[in-house]
Amino acid sequence: MVDAIRNAPWLTFFPDNYLWSFNAAMEMSLARAGGSDPGEVDRVIRALEGDTGDNMRWYAEWKAMGDQVLAIAGKAESEGRALSASAAYKRASNYYFAAERFYFPKDEESSATYRQVVECFRRATDLDPRVRVEHVDIAYEGSSLPAFFVPAPGAAEHPAPVVIFMNGFDGNKEMNWYLATEELLARGISVLALDSPGVGEAIRFRDIPLRHDYEVAASAALDWLESRSDVDSDRIGVMALSLGGYYAARSASMEHRLKACVSWGAIWDYHRIWRERIEAAFAKQLPVPGAHLVWSTGTTSTDEALGVLEGFRLDGVIQQMRCPFLLVHGEDDQQVPVADAHAMFEACGSEDKTIRVFSNEEGGAQHCHIDNLSIAVPFITDWLASKLGGSVSGRA
What we know:
Layout: H1 18-29, H2 38-48, H3 55-78, H4 82-101, H5 108-127, E1 134-140, E2 143-150, E3 160-166, H6 173-186, E4 190-194, H7 200-204, H8 215-226, E5 231-241, H9 244-254, E6 260-264, H10 270-279, H11 291-297, H12 302-308, E7 325-330, H13 338-347, E8 353-358, H14 373-388
Parallel strand pairs: 3-4, 3-5, 5-6, 6-7, 7-8
Antiparallel strand pairs: 1-2, 2-4
Helix pairs in contact: 1-2, 2-3, 3-4, 4-5, 6-14, 8-9
Pfam family, one: FrsA-like
Organism: Pseudonocardia ailaonensis
Family: Belongs to the AB hydrolase superfamily.
């Protein structure tokens, strides 16, 4: 049984279940960039009342909403209304992802649902003439990491800075579109959104598990970017959220071709975080079911998974970072204590480093600021533009 929510009055959807409330709030928040519609999210939440904690009911209701919105997208496309179809395909993609996140053990049905995540998002981007999205594969240790690349306006004529945008423990590259991709493009920064090891398609379809030495994935992405004529290879940064706060910081500490780093949420000692969760019989605040840990690490038990997490500590690593560093965290983050953010920031070896802790009073105090993305995302993307040479004003 997941702990009831402690001090977060904004999380009122399922007050006795943090996991469900956090994910419902996230679905609501993604409406700001077209990942959902508040009315559709509200209908799912209402349908789930009385079934809190039944993850297969969660799956069924979110999948049903995905199916409903997919039908809307297909009808709009058949009638030649490309932009309307694109918007609906994006929402369908995200609802299928919301459904599949809680589905364990993974099987053929969950895989089929996740393929809808990928296919709907690709169809959405193909139908939108306002942006050019390239769906690509990044060579990686005899396999490849799925990604999409979006060049900033004018990058073909004037090579642009780029942000390698990774998600976290349980996110995916498609979610990154709704979180900050459009804001980065508006500031003249191209985006490479990556399903890194243990994440998204990489774990589901290519059996690439989570690993602690994340600079291997970052180096692969850098090699790919440096081959492009529309990329300014001297202005490549990295950003990632949640557990990605570790991915980004580890990558920038070990791979000095990166010129800026944003940890969107602190991760100081991920082994300790999960040890405490396991010792509490998974009663602490979780972003996804506890089974995700064993599955994403490619192991067979929690003990074995904890062994993989031994390397997920930044002490002794982040001291080696040299590029500008931004760490953002929430004052009332119920998954990772704010004390970890201060420890991580103090240890960082960069001379140019900034920490921003969002408070309950202003909003953005929850994990990865899911309670107020509209205050946190502009702060993050403005900082990246100032360090990589983008445009805070939006003008070229």
